[in-house]
Amino acid sequence: MRPLLDLLKERKLIRWVVAYLPVASLSAFLILACSEPPSWRDAVAAGWPYSLDAAAVEATGGIVVSTDRYASSVGADVLKAGGNAIDAAVATAFALAVVNPEAGNVGGGGFMVIRLADGTTAALDFRERAPGAASRDMYLDETGELTDASRVGHRAVGVPGSVAGLWEAHGRFGALPWSSLLAPAIKLAEGFEVRERQAKSLLHYAEDLAQYPHTAEIFLPGGEPPAVGDTLVQADLARTLRRIQQQGRDGFYTGETARLVAEEMERHGGLITEQDLASYEAAWREPVEFSYRNHKIIGMAPTSSGGLTLAAMLKILEGYELSEMAWHSPAMIHLLAEAWKRAYADRNEYLGDPDFVDNTRVQLVSSEYGAERRASISLERATPSTEVAPGLGPYEAEQNTTHLSVVDPAGNAVSMTTTINSFYGIKAVVGGAGFILNNEMEDFSAKPGTANMFGLVQGEANAIAPGKRMLSAMTPTIVTRPDGSLFFVVGSPGGATIITNVSQNIMNMVDYRMNVVESVHAPRLHHQHLPDRIDYERGALDSATIAALEAMGHTLRERHSEQSLYPFIGDIQAIMVLPDGTRVGVSDPRRGGAAVGYHRQ
Ligand code: DON
Questions:
Q1: What is the spatial distance between Cα 145 and Cα 551, in angstroms, rounded to a whole number?
Q2: How far apart are CA 367 and CA 388, in angstroms?
Q3: C-alpha angle 206-211-215 in degrees, rounded to nearest 5
Q4: pTM higher than 0.85 for the full model?
Q5: How far is the CA of 44 from the centre of ligand 1 (A)?
Q6: How are beta strands 295-299 and 477-480 bridged, if at all?
Q7: What would the pLDDT profile of 399-451 be if each residue is shown by its tens digit?
Q8: How far is the CA of 258 from the centre of ligand 1 (A)?
Q9: How many whole angstroms from 495 Cα to the centroid of ligand 1?
Q10: Within 13 Å, how many C-alpha atoms sit on residue 592's CB side?
Q11: Which of 398, 451, 503, 565 is the most buried (most CB within 10 A)?
């Protein structure tokens, strides 16, 4: 006590306090400010299953992120061997066709968005096409009612585009020899050790896969799905891949593979002929490019609706200061739902295959569009979807698609999503060729104005016609910073939820300054105009937020099915590039993929 009294007497303490208090309080403030988690974290419930602080994979060299560790490793090895991002994407995609048969494919199609280190961009459409014998009402019965033939059985199969797409991308941008990019996939097809990812998926779908003997022979050897540690051999697929390795595109679209596909179709009443295959072409499109809060978004053009619908959503939302609103607050979610609803209404009405439809009737990428759509949004009340556009329908889907992202050491980037639509497509492999066929015809409006399996109520623009491509929601996307540097590469499966999922990741990173782990791991929401409902992942919203949104007129539903293999929304594969060039890769914990990268030597 004595020294303190002395200090007081001499007024030393007062002088000390006056001198140091500002410094001390500033330091205390800084410590508090730095240790305080960002406010958006408060909106993530304590029980949320995915850690916002999970470790990411960092690389100063190349990096590949996909839904499967085998496939990502194949891609990373290609980069290490001097391949560029396009080479790595090609090799990873072929590997996914082997180790991720639920979605990876040569029997499906997809989209690739490319941004080279010098800023050149490109977008490749290798979406499946309707066979020549397809017709507008081919899935209606005599009474005009929809049948399930657009998703079940061989009439549901669209002419595959994946091999043509990978061949085309490699032909224009690849650096390593084509054959070297097939070699790892062939090796995996000759036999790979089953990991938990494959065992779980094959067990879940065993009953469906058992329907077709050729499929069962491969994926249920001895009548059972393989267990972890077993070797899965896909000898027919290895032979198909070897034909593609040796003959390129022709190894799939002509000769033996084409003959096997045509025979499979004849055996099961499918429509695809050797002529359909021979005439398939991938198509380069102008990428959809637009700005969002001074960042440039490079997205996929139709036949995917991904880029234009993403633009529509973000152009509406750009007019609100989201960063000043608490993340996942009722006010913020209300605006997302209103924007998504309007963007989806326009997508469903106007978009379709650009070879058949003029997709520029509404300028979805323009700020004027955003302003016009915003004008009908009330800040207090939900606009019923019936007042945004007519029609209603159910939706629940078992579907599958897969995304991969690559950044190579030079800074070239690829964002690519491919699909066979449902998990394991129609569940049938092509006899003798060993690959699973898609059920992509389901993505057309088989009966315009009626919901498809994603609940999407689409219009005439997406009606079936011979040779036409079905509209997609796949949204492979690349984002650059205001200074023009590469910011992040992103994409996901998830049917209609893909576009809202990608839009949330862009808002998370641009408006809420999340890092890429936080952005991918954070809970997700969805609205697609019809049904008129906000879906939320289990644990994403608390009861007060739900009640506040209901009071505004929204309907909400927890989107979680215990029966589903993957009950949460989407499977983002993302890479963020830090300003110092470090690549940070995150594979969505919702399905179990992996980022694989390496450091510069
Ligand atoms: O192209 C489309 O929009 C759909 N075929 C995508 C399906 C899908 O993402 C399913 N994934 N879980």
A1: 37
A2: 19
A3: 75
A4: yes
A5: 27
A6: antiparallel
A7: 679 999 999 999 999 999 999 999 999 999 999 999 999 999 999 999 998 88
A8: 25
A9: 4
A10: 12
A11: 503
* From 419, 440, 442, 565, mutation site for ligand 1 pocket: most ligand atoms within 8 A of C-beta: 419
**pLDDT one-digit tens code per residue, 100-117:** 999 999 999 999 999 999
Q: Name the residue among 304, 370, 337, 371 with its Cα closest to residue 530.
A: 337
Q: Is the four-CA dihedral 10, 14, 19, 25 of positive or negative sign?
A: positive
CB 58 within 8 A of CB 137: no
The string of pLDDT tens digits covering residues 208-264 is 999 999 999 999 999 999 999 999 999 999 999 999 999 999 999 999 999 999 999
Ligand 1 closest atom vs CA 399: 10
Nearest CA to ligand 1 atom 10: 400
Rounded-to-integer distance, Cα 200 and Cα 187, Å: 22
Name the residue with the closest Cα to ligand 1, atom 1. 472
As annotated, the active-site residues are 401
Residues with CB under 6 A from ligand 1: 399-401, 419, 421, 440, 443, 472-474, 493-495, 498
Residue owning the nearest CA to atom 11 of ligand 1: 400
Buried/exposed 76-115: b ≥16 CB within 10 Å, e otherwise: bbbbeeebbbbbbbbbbbbbbbbbbbbbbbbbbbbbbbbb
Instruction: Count other Cβ atoms within 10 Å, centred on residue 73.
Output: 17
- State both tokens at 235: 């000898």
